[in-house]
Structure formats: structure tokens, C-alpha cells
Amino acid sequence: MRAFRLIGLMAGIGFGLAATASAQVTNGGFETGDFTGWTQFGNTGFTGVSGNFGGVNPVGGSWQAFFGPVGSTGGISQVLGLSAGSQYTVSFWLHSFGGTPNSFSADFDGNNLMSLVDDGGFNYTQYSFNVTPSVNNPTLSFTFQQNPSYYLLDDVSVRLVPEPAGMSLLALAGLLIRRR
To answer: What's the fold here for domain 23-161?
Structure first.
């Protein structure tokens, strides 16, 4: 009977950790078929959400965002309900059809995660960055300029990096259950 209580307790802790392990990005895969949850800024010409685009399928789901602003930059941003001081992993998939001049940048909490200029084109590639916001509710933004071609963006996510103490607790629980 004690083993069942212990299993129940550990399952509850596991579900609690799992519930906090993922921060919510609204419409990170663009599965609403539009930019719901995102704020568009700058030049939004030649920008939208599509299924297959130029022969390239979305990474996950049925939709992906495409960006091709010509002559000036445009992009999308989203305010995230994250806590200052906690560590998160920001992840997204990016595809470039090339074109010159072009540029891309990803920014989080006012800090640049990455920038590309005249990249020459590449297939979908996943990028991941560990970040620690300095303020509550930081902003994640993507800025594009693509003359005369396109960037594709898909499966944007932000996940809480588990605390070492939480992982140790789960490992201890596993040992205790195994011992019984």
C-alpha cells in the first residue's frame, strides 16, 4: 500500500513538473492558418501563412509562415508570459530561399539571439537558444527582409529548462520505487 502512495505522490510531482516544463507560445506552428497570437510589424508585404510553399512542406502540422518583405524589414513578435530569472530554451525552424540582399534576426528580451545577412539559402534548420529573461513577460521577435525571395518559419517554441533539484527528485523517486 505504501508503494502505491509513493507512486501516486511521484506521479503528482511528475505531472506538476511537466505542467511547468513548457511555456506557452501562442500559435507557434501557425496552425490557425494565420498570425493569431503574433503582432506583425514593419513591411508586411509578401508575408503570410501557407501549407506547402515553393515546394517546401511545413516542419510540423499543416501550416508555416512565409516572409518576403522587399526594400525594408518586417516581422512578427509575441509577448510571452515568462518569469524573469528562470532559464528557458527558445527553439524554431527556419528555411531560406536565398536572394540578395536579405536579412533575418531573432531577438528575445531585447537581446539578439542570431542574425543572418545574405545567407545564400538553406533548407529548414532548427535553431535553439538557452535564455534567461531579465523581466517578466519578455518579447520574442523575428525580423525579415528578403529581396526578392522568402524565408519560412515554423514550430516556434519556448520551454522551461528543468531545475536540477526537480530532476534529482524524480531520479530519487525512481530509485525508491525500484527498490520496493
So the answer is: Jelly Rolls (2.60.120)
